Amino acid sequence: MNMNISRVLSTLFLLATVFSVRAEGVMVSDPWVRAAPPNAPALAAFMSLENHSGSEVALIGVTAAAELGRVEMHRTKMADGMMKMIQQKNIPVAPHSSTVLKPGSWHIMMIGPAKVPTVGDQIHLTLSFSDGSEQMVMAEVRRGGMMMKGGGHQMMHH
Ligand SMILES: [Cu+2]
User: Fold this and answer.
1) The pTM is what?
2) Which residues make beta-bridge pairs with 139?
3) What is the pLDDT of residue 99?
4) Cα 82 to ligand 1 centre (Å)
5) Which of 37, 60, 67, 73 is the most buried (most CB within 10 A)?
């Protein structure tokens, strides 16, 4: 019994070592895509980006399957008493800090999807960072998030 426990512990230790190596740059957690009606003009993806390094790292590019549409990085801001989405060149993550992509704030947007995924689907997203690293994440389609006046994401681009 004790032998088994120590074997489990050393396996966990090894796993922890592997993960701490990966955490050198940006650690991505809880990626998800907000469920949308089948005719939705756009989809939004959210996640948490944790920077464990001593210098700023930015998310500089996101790619997804072509059927999900054109991918952009956005930030929702209050301007003249209205919530507006503004396209961003990148999403910065300060040293030893985190940036949370969430409804009403930073987010990734897929515009003009040919096929809107349903709750439970897993969406592959490839994230490119300013330190040259790339990560592929699986974002689960979930219900939720704050709904803004007028039904959430309005198309107010450029
Ligand atoms: Cu947006």
Assistant:
1) 0.77
2) 123
3) 98
4) 14
5) 73
